[in-house]
Amino acid sequence: MLTHVKQNTDRWNLFFELRVSMRYHRARQVHYDFWGKMNAGVNLVIGSAAFLAVTQTVPPLVLPGLMLLLTAWNAWALIVDPARMHHLHAALHDRFSRLAERIEGPAALAIEELAAIQSDRLAIERDEPPALRTLQAMCYRDTALAYGAQPGDDRPLVRRMLAQYVS
Q1: Which residues contact 95 (CB under 8 A, 6 or more apart)?
Q2: Rounded to an integer, what distance in angstroms lies between the CA atom of residue 133 and that of residue 149?
């Protein structure tokens, strides 16, 4: 992986930025995959006949409360659409990956080719949803660690835990 390219060159920096973007979109893809599966599981359990049989023994106000929660859960799933977001981030990851492949070859790249790759990168970024800054910083840190750097992480634990939800 670009072991033949000197760090802190335009080629290396562009490759590094592409790897950060790939890591970010893979993290978002995994996040939405989890919530899509969670949504399917909740609907399966609450919609099953066994669940209805168990609820015959609960107090009368519990069942309407559970149905209200299920309605709110499904409304969230309709708005967020985890499956669509999963596929969007998978597609963005693949597009960034194809750009990284163009850089990885051993041959030197002309300035024009680097400019074309940078232009393609910016075109992909226009298609991205707004980035979560904390998650992006975490992906930058993880990528830097993967290449041997020792970046600090000054973000509080709570922010890191909520990185998939808030910027």
Answers
A1: 124
A2: 20
The owner of tokens 């024009």 is 112
| pLDDT digits 0-9 by tens, 37-64 | 999 998 888 777 667 777 777 777 777 8
DSSP structure string for 28-85: HHHHHHHHHHHHHHHHHHHTSHHHHHHHTTS-TTHHHHHHHHHHHHHHHHHHH-HHHH
Dihedral of the CA atoms 66, 71, 72, 74 (nearest 10)?
120
| Long-range contacts, stretch 81-86, CB < 8 angstroms, 24+ apart | 82/32, 82/33, 82/35, 82/36, 82/39, 83/32, 83/36, 85/28, 85/32, 85/129, 86/29, 86/32, 86/33, 86/36
The whole-model pTM stands at 0.84
**Distance separating alpha carbons of residues 153 and 134, to the nearest angstrom:** 11
What is the C-alpha to C-alpha distance for residues 29 and 37, in angstroms, rounded to an integer?
12
Amino acid of residue 48: S
C-alpha torsion angle, residues 135, 141, 143, 149 (rounded to 10): 180
Closest by alpha carbon to 162, among 130, 125, 133? 133
Q: What's the rounded Cα separation, in Å, for the pair 64 and 142?
A: 45
Decide: 100 and 22 in contact? Cβ < 8 Å.
yes
